[in-house]
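FORM 12-B: Structure-to-Sequence Request
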């Protein structure tokens, strides 16, 4: 499938110029403008290139580490972490796709991961990069 990088760059310019930074916290799940990316990097979807992400680390009011989520449950894979942020709905955090994002990319909050799930997620990332 061909990717439309020209369309994404127009949208990225609009996001940069029009969006204020939102108030956010670690553990929250936000829809984020991830864009049209290269190869196997996780893309956003739709006209505004949105994908849910979990906020892993808040560095300041401008940037954070975010991990893209997918609806597909992919257990027992070393670079994935299955979690739930809505009752009865499971998602997979794609740990290998962690990325630094400007908070201008965050569109709207959709949930919060439980403290126990978030602690387990952080521990799995520690083991992954150690």
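FORM 12-B RESPONSE
SEQUENCE OUT:
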């Amino acid at each position: 499938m061909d990717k439309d990088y020209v369309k994404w760059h127009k949208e990225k310019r609009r996001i940069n110029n029009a969006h204020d930074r939102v108030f956010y916290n670690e553990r929250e799940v936000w829809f984020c403008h991830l864009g049209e990316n290269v190869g196997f990097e996780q893309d956003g979807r739709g006209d505004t290139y949105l994908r849910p992400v979990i906020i892993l680390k808040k560095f300041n009011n401008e940037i954070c580490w975010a991990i893209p989520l997918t609806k597909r449950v992919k257990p027992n894979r070393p670079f994935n972490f299955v979690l739930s942020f809505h009752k009865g709905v499971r998602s997979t955090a794609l740990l290998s796709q962690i990325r630094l994002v400007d908070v201008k990319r965050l569109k709207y909050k959709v949930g919060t991961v439980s403290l126990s799930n978030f602690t387990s997620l952080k521990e799995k990332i520690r083991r992954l990069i150690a």
